[in-house]
Amino acid sequence: MALKGIPSSASRSVHTIPRAVLRLLQFALALTVCGLYGTDIQNGNKHHQSADPKWLYAVVIGGISVVTSLIYGAPFVKSHLFFAWDAILFILWIAVFGVFGKMYLHENAEGNAGVQRMKNAVWVDLVNVFLWLIKKLLVNTKALKGAGKQAGAVILTADVSSPDIAIWHLIHDLSKDQ
Question: How far apart are the C-alpha atoms of 144 and 4, rounded to whole Å?
Answer without folding.
Answer: 22
